């Protein structure tokens, strides 16, 4: 067995704390996890990791549960035989936007943790607020309206901060905290994100925000690389309050690979870490996902879980209120483009359940759905002259576009997308079957991603003859196991080099954290001396990463005829969304 250095990555998500340890050549050495419901449901009164206050739309988690989970996951890691003393670097990820409010005792307590007592025993008294708002919190509509209006309109806010106002974004959450619980705001000495909270525990000091995760707050000016004064003023309530708020937020290092210090003595003595083990900035879970493989510009990750996300690494900054731009976690000057949809797997399941159940020995509940998807032609255009079918299927209120729950079916001219109109079974000449719905819902999810990413894609190097499109599409999450879905995503989104399934699936964020720690520790010099350079994340991880065992090609991607057909109806798809939105508003 090798005796080289190891790197530890965490992922503190809504439902679990996961840890994964990898070697310098990216081989997984050990893994452990704490599942909040399985381990702590009674103790912390949670369900699916959270507590909910329906009346105010609050969704939140006890911070003590996170603290408790740190000791537990490390004991499990050690029990599994992980050689803790070989761990040279630690990083990780946390659910984005979630915030922790420390009081003025926190810094001193973190610095002096006693290895003879648990973290929970010692950190109980260091929080100004015992809960962390979760990213699913939607208690901040008033604050969102204030943020959207403060710089002029949502577009201006998106241009400055990378996103329009969102309920879960930390700036709106802090503003609500000041208004709703002023005594908490006043007694807060420092605010952490979930990611920097976890880094702080390991560091034994309050860690700064990460340069990527800070762009999920609606407070950071991406172009100016600093806090936005006007937004701070809004959050603090007055120009005089800004100094105090700045203190609570702290300074943000621009380098995502910054070494924050070494691990706190508590972890050396209690768990056997080396005292030289270094802590790198922890980032958000979505930024960490794009670090779980060498994702080049023009490559996209599509996560097909309960909800759906579309992530791209891009040098282009073209913000818009309907999506998010965040700083790339390791590469200054690059961005992470993100679309975050509430409707994904559950919406597909609803359509699946309207089809006849698979019969006989067939065990796959998706068999009939997949058959319908593959046997229905693109846009359900069977013969020349048939109209194209388009739909929106949102059993939950959607973020992109921001519309209430509902199902809408439209048709348009398949040749050029002209004459989009709402489908009506009585007056339309074409039939709309549950089988057609199966194809149209998957197309619809992919069309929305194509519509919103079309300005970010360009001709793919090595394939200049092809229209602008992503280079590779990597699918993760439950839906990635479904070949019919992979096929339709390839039809709609293209993928000059194909569609791949990323096998690290459930562990992508923790793995991205471990790779980040590895990169920060092994990239070479500190980059401070003149002329001195460090290796980029992509160079370092790209040279060590092997496709075999990590990804599988599941579809060829770009097909000329289909790609052009979907291109012809993109305008009609956009128009359908516009009409649905305008009806919803009136
Ligand atoms: C992203 C978001 C979620 C959380 C999940 O904006 O809110 O994806 O990061 O933990």
Unreliable stretches (pLDDT < 50, length at least 5) are none
Tell me how many strands there are. Answer: 24
The rough form would be described as globular
The named CATH superfamily of the domain at 6-287: ATPase, nucleotide binding domain
Describe the structure.
The protein has 586 residues and is α+β, with helices and mostly antiparallel strands. It contains 20 helices and 24 strands. Strands 1, 2, 3, 6, 12, 13 and 14 form a 7-stranded mixed beta sheet that branches. A 7-stranded mixed beta sheet has the order 17-18-16-15-22-23-24. The mean pLDDT is 95. The structure holds D-xylulose. D-xylulose is lined by residues 13-14, 95-97, 135, 168, 284-286, 340.
Topology:
Blueprint: E1 6-12, E2 16-23, E3 28-35, H1 36-44, E4 51-53, E5 58-62, H2 63-79, E6 87-94, E7 99-102, H3 106-111, H4 119-123, E8 131-133, H5 141-150, H6 154-161, H7 170-180, H8 182-186, E9 190-193, H9 194-203, E10 220-221, E11 226-227, H10 229-236, H11 242-249, E12 259-262, H12 265-271, E13 278-280, E14 283-284, H13 285-289, E15 300-304, E16 308-314, E17 324-327, E18 335-341, H14 345-353, H15 367-375, E19 387-394, E20 406-413, E21 421-422, H16 434-453, E22 473-476, H17 483-493, E23 499-502, H18 508-522, H19 537-544, E24 551-555, H20 560-585
Parallel strand pairs: 1-6, 6-13, 6-14, 15-22, 22-23
Antiparallel strand pairs: 1-2, 2-3, 4-5, 5-8, 7-9, 10-11, 12-13, 15-16, 16-18, 17-18, 19-20, 20-21, 23-24
Helix pairs in contact: 5-6, 7-10, 10-11, 14-16, 15-16, 15-17, 16-17, 16-20
The chain binds D-xylulose.
């Amino acid at each position: 067995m090798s005796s080289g250095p190891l790197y530890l990555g965490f992922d503190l998500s809504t439902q679990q704390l996961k840890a994964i340890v990898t070697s310098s050549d990216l081989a997984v050495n050990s893994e452990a996890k704490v599942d909040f419901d399985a381990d702590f449901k009674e103790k912390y009164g949670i369900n699916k990791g959270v507590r909910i206050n329906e009346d105010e739309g609050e969704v939140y988690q006890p911070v003590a549960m996170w603290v408790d989970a740190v000791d537990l996951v490390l004991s499990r890691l050690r029990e599994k035989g992980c050689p803790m003393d070989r761990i040279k670097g630690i990083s990780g990820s946390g659910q984005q936007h979630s915030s922790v409010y420390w009081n003025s005792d926190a810094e001193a307590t973190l610095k002096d943790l006693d290895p003879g007592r648990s973290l929970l025993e010692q950190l109980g008294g260091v929080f100004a607020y015992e809960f962390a708002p979760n990213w699913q919190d939607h208690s901040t509509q008033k604050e969102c309206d204030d943020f959207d209006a403060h710089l002029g309109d949502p577009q201006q806010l998106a241009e400055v901060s990378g996103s329009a106002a969102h309920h879960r974004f930390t700036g709106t959450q802090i503003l609500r905290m000041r208004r709703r619980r002023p005594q908490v705001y006043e007694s807060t000495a420092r605010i952490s994100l979930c990611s920097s909270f976890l880094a702080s525990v390991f560091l034994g000091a309050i860690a700064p925000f990460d340069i990527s995760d800070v762009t999920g707050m609606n407070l950071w000016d991406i172009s100016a690389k600093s806090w936005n004064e006007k937004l701070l003023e809004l959050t603090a309530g007055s120009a005089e309050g800004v100094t105090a708020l700045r203190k609570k937020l702290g300074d943000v290092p621009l380098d995502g690979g910054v070494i924050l210090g070494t691990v706190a003595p508590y972890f050396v003595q209690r768990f056997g870490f080396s005292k030289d083990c270094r802590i790198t900035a922890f980032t958000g879970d979505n930024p960490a996902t794009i670090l779980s493989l060498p994702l080049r510009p023009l490559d996209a990750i599509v996560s097909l879980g309960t909800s759906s996300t579309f992530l791209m690494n891009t040098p282009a900054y073209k913000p818009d209120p309907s999506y998010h731009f965040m700083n790339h976690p390791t590469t200054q000057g690059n961005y992470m483009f993100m679309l975050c949809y509430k409707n994904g797997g559950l919406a597909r399941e609803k359509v699946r359940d309207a089809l006849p159940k698979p019969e006989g020995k067939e065990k796959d509940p998706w068999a009939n759905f997949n058959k319908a998807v593959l046997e229905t032609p693109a846009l359900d255009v069977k013969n020349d002259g048939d109209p194209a079918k388009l739909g929106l299927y949102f059993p939950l209120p959607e973020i992109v576009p921001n519309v209430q729950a509902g199902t809408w079916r439209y048709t348009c001219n398949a040749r050029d997308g002209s004459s989009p109109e709402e489908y009506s079974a009585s007056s339309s000449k074409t039939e709309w079957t549950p089988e057609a719905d199966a194809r149209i819902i998957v197309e619809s999810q992919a069309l929305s991603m194509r519509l919103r990413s079309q300005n970010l894609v360009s001709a793919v190097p090595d394939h200049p003859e092809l229209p602008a499109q992503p280079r590779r599409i990597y699918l993760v999450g439950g839906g990635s196991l479904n070949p019919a879905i992979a096929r339709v995503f390839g039809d709609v989104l293209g993928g000059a080099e194909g569609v791949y399934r990323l096998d690290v699936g459930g562990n992508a964020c923790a793995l991205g954290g471990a790779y980040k720690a590895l990169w920060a520790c092994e990239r070479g010099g500190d980059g401070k001396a003149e002329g001195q350079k460090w290796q980029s994340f992509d160079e370092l991880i790209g040279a060590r990463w092997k496709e075999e065992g990590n990804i599988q090609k599941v579809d060829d991607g770009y097909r000329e005829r289909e790609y052009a057909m979907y291109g012809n109806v993109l305008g009609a798809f956009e128009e359908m969304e516009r009409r649905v939105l305008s009806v919803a508003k009136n």
